[in-house]
Specification:
about 400 residues, mainly alpha, 16 helices, about 75% helix
Length: about 400
């Protein structure tokens, strides 16, 4: 009887995978989306309807933005069989550097202070990342060691800059990047533009695959997927618009940090899927020796991937410090673990070669939803960390099982 039940379960699993393969759907991503939906429903019931309120979802989207933004770059780092433990400390240093430029170098509230400080932060962030990547690629020092050193170095450099004091206040225009929003009308325009771009990309990709003789999804399936995505975009914009300003009927609209995340994610998807640099990273992560024999400049690829995450860390520092209107040394603590966990939960394989930008975004939403929900229902800090550790271990175990079945 047990063998019969196992055979039936295996048959159902095989049929589901067969249908998913026919429709070219990633069952792993679908499982993660299902997990996010289940978590949202559970916490909404447990919190008496607070979790899915527009106010909490607006705040959750802002809380997720920095982790998700850095996770998109961490995917490429892990895919190339490396790791970056320094992003939290580098974010703190860059935030302090930006605050120092605004308050000590340039006149506070000056016309150009905010954008000059951002340019300095991004340039220094990319240079710091490239320097770590150069050490890893040039001298074959393990990324774990180099970035662990970076974790201590950048936090210490921040201390030297400020002697432990918090840099505040920051420029008013600069603060818009952390706590601002674009209002109802512009939010709908962004939603419509995003959906139009999605439709155009879907049909461009379909036409391109057909011209190359590749299999495409049935047209009806493409239209159903677009309808679902259009509904999700409309629901997102409506929810963001439903959270009003205090003592006002005006909706806040899409938060600026989320808008930055959307733009960066689109850029990262383009880099990962449409450029030779992205293909080299996946090729190097899948088989480093083959990539080198194929003539790929693997040292340059590794260095550029670390420069990329350094630049995005600077953008994360802008969002974090602008939201606080301050640059404290304590900012970004344990952020590196959150970012790595989001990438791994999102399906990025620690053995390299496998991982998607979209998966890392879903992983970040899942992880931050768990944290947000546990806070709402009154779970203490210690159990929160234990539960998150359990989720991370489960994600790695699931990856091992998934990779084993693929082979």
């Amino acid at each position: 009887m047990e063998q019969t039940a196992d055979a039936q379960n295996a048959g159902v699993g095989t049929r589901i995978r067969s249908v998913a393969d026919t429709l070219q759907m990633d069952t792993r991503l679908l499982a993660m989306v299902g997990a996010v939906i289940a978590i949202w429903i559970f916490f909404d019931i447990a919190s008496g309807g607070l979790f899915l309120s527009p106010r909490n979802l607006w705040n959750l989207s802002v809380q997720t933005s920095v982790t998700a933004l850095l996770a998109t770059a961490m995917v490429l780092i892990i895919v190339s069989r490396n790791i970056d433990l320094s992003v939290g400390s580098l974010l703190a240093f860059l935030g302090i550097l930006g605050g120092f430029v605004q308050t000590e170098v340039l006149p506070l509230e000056g016309a150009h202070s905010w954008w000059i400080s951002i340019v300095v932060m991004v340039a220094v962030g990319a240079a710091a990342g490239a320097a770590q990547g150069w050490l890893i690629a040039r001298f074959a020092i393990p990324a774990f060691v180099v970035t662990l050193g970076g974790l201590m170095f950048w936090r210490g450099a921040g201390w030297l800059f400020t002697q432990g004091r918090t840099v505040t206040p920051l420029d008013t225009t600069y603060n818009f990047f952390g706590g601002g929003s674009i209002g109802e009308t512009y939010s709908w325009l962004v939603g419509i533009a995003g959906f139009a771009l999605l439709v155009a990309l879907t049909f461009w990709k379909r036409r391109r695959r057909l011209s190359l003789g590749f299999v495409v999804k049935p047209l009806g399936v493409e239209l159903i997927i677009l309808a679902i995505l259009g509904g999700l975009i409309a629901a997102f914009v409506w929810t963001m618009n439903s959270y009003n300003f205090p003592r006002s009927d005006d909706g806040r609209g899409i938060p600026v940090p989320v808008l930055i995340l959307i733009v960066v994610s689109g850029g990262m998807m383009y880099i990962a899927n449409m450029t030779s640099f992205g293909r080299y990273i996946y090729g190097y992560g899948g088989n480093p020796e083959a990539a080198q024999l194929a003539g790929v400049n693997t040292k340059r690829v590794v260095m550029l991937s670390f420069a990329l995450i350094g630049g995005l860390t600077a953008i994360g520092a802008v969002i974090s410090t602008a939201r606080l209107n301050a640059a404290p040394l304590s900012i970004g603590q344990l952020l590196e673990l959150q970012v790595i966990a989001a990438a791994v939960i999102g399906g990025t394989s620690l053995s390299g070669g496998v991982g998607t930008i979209l998966g890392s975004l879903i992983g970040a939403v899942l992880m931050m939803s768990l944290q947000n929900g546990m806070v709402l229902v009154g779970v203490q800090s210690a159990p929160q960390q234990m539960i998150m550790a359990g989720v991370l271990i489960f994600a790695v175990w699931f990856d091992v099982i998934y990779q084993r079945r693929r082979t």
